[in-house]
Amino acid sequence: MDEIRVTLVGQPNAGKSSLFTRMTGVGVIISNYAGTTVEFEEATVTRNGVNVHVHDLPGTYALSGNSDDERMVMDALVNDPGDVVVVVADASNIEGSIVLCFEVIELGLPTILALNKMDLAMKRFDTDLSLLSRILKIPVVPVSARSALGVDALMDEIISFKKRTAAFNVRYDSHTEEYIEELTSIGTIAGLDPRGVAVKLLEADEFISSLASDEERETAERMAAEFERSHGESINVHIARDRYGQAGIVKNEVQKKTARELTFSEKLSDMTTAPATGIPILIGVLFLTFLTFIGVSNFLEGLIHDAYVSAVGDSLRDIGERIGGDLGAAVMEGINGSILAILTIVVPFIMLFYVLLGILEDSGYLPRAVVLLDRTMHSLGLHGGAFIPMMVGLGCNVPAIMATRVIASKRERIIISTMIAMAVPCSAQLAIILGATGKYAGIAAAFSIFMLLLAMIFVIGILMNRWMKFEPTSLAMEMPDLSAPSMKNVIFKTWNRCKDFFILAFPLLVAGSIILEVLLFYGALDAMVGPFSFITGTLLGLPPIVIIAFVFGILRKEMALAMLMVLAAPITLADFMTPDQFLVFGVVMALYVPCLATVAVLWREFGAKNTVLISGTSLIAALMIGAGFNAILSLI
Fold first, then answer.
1. What angle do CA 322, 327, 330 make, to 5 degrees?
2. What pLDDT is stored for residue 586 in this prediction?
3. Strand partners for 267
4. Taking the complete model, does pTM exceed 0.70, yes or no?
């Protein structure tokens, strides 16, 4: 059976991952912001007797930079581009995608342009697809990943595609063209167009430069330095300006605005990005999300708790007692407490948060918040794009830190990852702050923890920005149209993000609860609690046994609250600790050392030294600030 290998390239928010899903039937998380497909995705589908192997590369705004995602894309395009490269463009905002298409064509790669979101673009523009195809000298196929419009036509075009390269070239200024001609006479890289290689060398592309000869690199560096002396600006800026200038000309030739009034959705979209109206809208959205989370989560927690107690009661304990006496009852009590804990934490708190996050993602609102917060983020040594990993971090810190890969600067990645690990509460920590501190110490106590975390974010950002001197990178982000979220997408993403809590956390929680109950049965818990009582009892003013919850919290944060519930049995949590103690517990857990999964991803991304510094600083800050709260509350 014949096989065709296809490589998908596109800017973030062009709908590349959605199109990948439509083409292959393989489900990937679909998000409206950059960073979802940071790692490679691939799948094979059979069409008309041909195996079509589709390789989905990370979203990237350009091939001219040196960020991690751009290097990954360049590596794939140079070493294994496949039989055809499909550039996925947002048809309602094509200029940036045309620039990316220029770069792919320039490298001499066989290219198809897939204009995605055509159903939305047709409401706003008249696009001459045949003219665009004639200008670029490549096939142009209109598609809509949302409605599956044109996906079959794209697959047919891929299957019938003849391996050829486009004759289109971006025309640069005369000096740059002279440099390109001289470089192409020296040599080239196998499989790539000599002109494209020359342009990338002038741009000082790290990946292409690593493949070039010493003579080519030295010649390109000399030319770049000479250009900057004579023109007063770097040559890569000049090249980018020429590309965007030509892309603008092409766009104006092939796409005209339709003569009609803006829709309500389009007017609302404009309001969300203008500071005068966008900031109040952002505050309103965050406040409404917060209120919804508090109200619904506490209602669901009570409902699930009462339903479980009513349905199960002491039946599991009684079964254990009949089978194994008091020891059997202790084991079954551990299982019973684990089931109740996971149901009253994961479902009402963690799953609900991911539903709300999915709605914000799928509606296209998050990129607008990024643009609004760009100026504020600059004061922390970051740009507005850092807001997205922070929002993801409110669900889980692990994917949030991985999402920082789309940030070009390693310095900025370390700053935002430190903020996430130390001061952005994951959904499990939110459950502790709201489900424990908020419920038993009052909503004002929970609010004070959120204010503390917000202050910590600014302190970390300002200090690290001062210690790690460098100008923050500028923000470049495409904004998708506002649209009604697809509940199917929201539910699918929620399950994919929550399933690990059931698959990984639940067995650990059951095992830990059984061990804890057996230790209690044999009176062996004091041997574990005693050595650490000076921390929990003296320093933090908590019941010494709470150290067990802290230890389990290192494995997974949601286990800390679950173990606290197990420790409190058979009395209620309200009788187990005072409101002041719940506040201190919430403060410590909000700032506590990252869970093992977060430590592992920090280690992989930034190495042992940075991981130890972040984790150690987090633990020290948690204990010191917790002790400070305890001292102040004791005085009051």
1. 95
2. 94
3. none
4. no
Question: H-helix or E-strand containing 354?
Answer: helix 352-362
Distance CA 115, CA 101 (A): 11
Residues 391-415 have pLDDT tens digits of 878 877 877 887 787 676 778 889 9
Distance CA(425)–CA(590), nearest Å, equals 6
Structure tokens at 216: 């080519």
Residue type, 468: M
Phi-psi map region of 204: left, alpha, beta (phi>0 left; psi -120 to 50 alpha)? left
**More confidently predicted of 172 and 480:** 172
Mean pLDDT of the chain: 82
383 exposure class (CB count in 10 Å sphere: 0-12, 13-18, 19+): buried
Biggest CA pair distance of the chain? 91
Question: Token pair for residue 128?
Answer: 């001459």
Strands (E), 136-272: 140-142, 255-257
pLDDT over threshold 50, residue 474: no
pLDDT of residue 580: 94
The percent of residues above 70 in pLDDT, for the chain, comes to 89
**C-beta of residue 251 within 8 angstroms of C-beta of residue 92:** no
Quickly tell me which residue has 């493949």 as its tokens. Answer: 211
The domain locations on the chain are 2-159, 276-471+499-635
Q: What share of the chain is helix, strand, coil (3-state, %, to 5)?
A: 70, 5, 25
* Fold of the 2-159 domain: Rossmann fold (3.40.50)
Gyration radius (Cα) of the chain, Å: 28
Instruction: Measure the N-to-C terminal CA separation of the chain; round to a whole number of Å.
Output: 78
Residues in contact with 169: Cβ distance below 8 Å, sequence separation at least 6, in sequence order:
106, 195
Strands (E), 297-345: none
| Span of 46-55, 60-69, 180-189, 344-353 with lowest mean pLDDT | 60-69
Q: Going by DSSP bridges, is the β-strand pair 84-90/2-10 parallel, antiparallel, or unpaired?
A: parallel
Say how far apart CA 385 and CA 394 lie, in whole Å.
15
Distance CA 448, CA 435 (A): 15
Assigned token pair, 183 = 């470089």
- Give the confidence band of 35 by pLDDT, cuts at 50, 70, 90: very low
Strand partners, 185: none
Which string of b and e fits 35-65 if b means at least 16 CB within 10 Å?
bbbbeebbbeeeeeeeebbbbbbbbbbbbbb
